[in-house]
Design a protein that fits this description.
mainly alpha; 115 residues; 6 helices
Length: 115
Protein backbone atom coordinates (compact mmCIF):
# COMPACT_ATOMS: atom_id res chain seq x y z
CA UNK A 1 0.00 0.00 0.00
CA UNK A 2 2.82 2.41 0.90
CA UNK A 3 4.45 1.81 -2.49
CA UNK A 4 1.17 2.62 -4.27
CA UNK A 5 0.66 5.74 -2.17
CA UNK A 6 4.23 6.90 -2.83
CA UNK A 7 3.73 6.50 -6.58
CA UNK A 8 0.41 8.36 -6.39
CA UNK A 9 2.03 11.16 -4.41
CA UNK A 10 4.71 11.50 -7.09
CA UNK A 11 2.11 11.63 -9.85
CA UNK A 12 0.04 14.15 -7.91
CA UNK A 13 3.16 16.28 -7.34
CA UNK A 14 3.85 16.38 -11.08
CA UNK A 15 0.21 17.23 -11.83
CA UNK A 16 0.37 20.11 -9.32
CA UNK A 17 3.46 21.50 -11.05
CA UNK A 18 1.69 21.13 -14.39
CA UNK A 19 -1.11 23.40 -13.13
CA UNK A 20 1.38 26.27 -13.08
CA UNK A 21 2.40 25.59 -16.68
CA UNK A 22 -1.22 25.36 -17.86
CA UNK A 23 -2.09 28.60 -16.06
CA UNK A 24 0.89 30.39 -17.61
CA UNK A 25 -0.65 29.77 -21.04
CA UNK A 26 -3.52 32.11 -20.09
CA UNK A 27 -1.23 34.71 -18.53
CA UNK A 28 -1.78 33.65 -14.92
CA UNK A 29 1.21 32.52 -12.90
CA UNK A 30 0.23 31.03 -9.52
CA UNK A 31 3.64 31.53 -7.93
CA UNK A 32 2.46 30.65 -4.41
CA UNK A 33 1.14 27.31 -5.65
CA UNK A 34 4.40 26.46 -7.38
CA UNK A 35 6.50 27.54 -4.38
CA UNK A 36 4.41 25.45 -1.97
CA UNK A 37 4.62 22.41 -4.23
CA UNK A 38 8.39 22.68 -4.57
CA UNK A 39 8.92 23.22 -0.84
CA UNK A 40 6.34 20.85 0.66
CA UNK A 41 5.48 18.38 -2.08
CA UNK A 42 2.22 18.25 -4.02
CA UNK A 43 -0.03 16.61 -1.44
CA UNK A 44 1.15 18.71 1.53
CA UNK A 45 0.90 21.87 -0.57
CA UNK A 46 -2.63 21.01 -1.65
CA UNK A 47 -3.68 20.44 1.95
CA UNK A 48 -2.13 23.74 3.10
CA UNK A 49 -3.61 25.77 0.25
CA UNK A 50 -7.01 24.14 0.60
CA UNK A 51 -7.26 25.43 4.17
CA UNK A 52 -5.86 28.87 3.38
CA UNK A 53 -8.59 31.53 3.28
CA UNK A 54 -8.77 34.28 0.71
CA UNK A 55 -8.73 34.66 -3.02
CA UNK A 56 -7.65 31.57 -4.85
CA UNK A 57 -6.36 30.70 -8.26
CA UNK A 58 -9.64 28.89 -8.70
CA UNK A 59 -11.40 32.20 -9.26
CA UNK A 60 -8.92 33.19 -11.95
CA UNK A 61 -9.27 29.83 -13.67
CA UNK A 62 -13.05 30.09 -13.60
CA UNK A 63 -12.85 33.50 -15.26
CA UNK A 64 -11.22 31.67 -18.17
CA UNK A 65 -13.56 28.68 -18.03
CA UNK A 66 -10.73 26.46 -16.81
CA UNK A 67 -11.82 25.29 -13.34
CA UNK A 68 -11.22 21.73 -14.50
CA UNK A 69 -7.45 22.27 -14.23
CA UNK A 70 -7.61 23.73 -10.70
CA UNK A 71 -5.97 22.25 -7.64
CA UNK A 72 -9.44 21.60 -6.21
CA UNK A 73 -10.44 19.62 -9.30
CA UNK A 74 -7.18 17.66 -9.11
CA UNK A 75 -7.90 16.76 -5.46
CA UNK A 76 -11.24 15.35 -6.61
CA UNK A 77 -9.70 13.27 -9.40
CA UNK A 78 -10.61 9.63 -8.60
CA UNK A 79 -6.99 8.59 -9.22
CA UNK A 80 -5.94 10.54 -6.12
CA UNK A 81 -8.78 9.59 -3.80
CA UNK A 82 -6.43 7.64 -1.52
CA UNK A 83 -4.29 10.73 -0.89
CA UNK A 84 -6.99 12.89 0.69
CA UNK A 85 -9.49 12.47 3.49
CA UNK A 86 -13.21 12.60 2.87
CA UNK A 87 -13.25 15.96 4.64
CA UNK A 88 -10.54 17.40 2.35
CA UNK A 89 -12.38 16.16 -0.72
CA UNK A 90 -15.63 17.63 0.60
CA UNK A 91 -13.92 21.00 1.11
CA UNK A 92 -12.57 20.91 -2.45
CA UNK A 93 -16.09 20.13 -3.71
CA UNK A 94 -17.55 22.97 -1.64
CA UNK A 95 -14.97 25.45 -2.92
CA UNK A 96 -15.60 24.48 -6.53
CA UNK A 97 -19.36 24.76 -6.05
CA UNK A 98 -19.15 28.05 -4.11
CA UNK A 99 -16.92 29.73 -6.65
CA UNK A 100 -19.15 28.58 -9.49
CA UNK A 101 -22.29 29.77 -7.70
CA UNK A 102 -20.84 33.18 -6.80
CA UNK A 103 -19.66 33.63 -10.37
CA UNK A 104 -23.12 32.78 -11.68
CA UNK A 105 -24.76 35.20 -9.24
CA UNK A 106 -22.39 37.91 -10.43
CA UNK A 107 -23.46 37.34 -14.02
CA UNK A 108 -27.12 37.36 -13.05
CA UNK A 109 -26.70 40.62 -11.13
CA UNK A 110 -24.91 42.22 -14.07
CA UNK A 111 -27.72 41.20 -16.42
CA UNK A 112 -30.34 42.48 -13.94
CA UNK A 113 -28.52 45.81 -13.61
CA UNK A 114 -28.60 46.31 -17.39
CA UNK A 115 -32.37 45.85 -17.62
Amino acid sequence: MKRVTGKLEGEFHQEMLAIYDRCAKIGFRPVLLRRFVLLKGGVAAARALLEQPGTTGLERLQQHGMAAISMEALILDPRYELLFTAQERKLATTLLAARTASRSRGRLNAVADRT
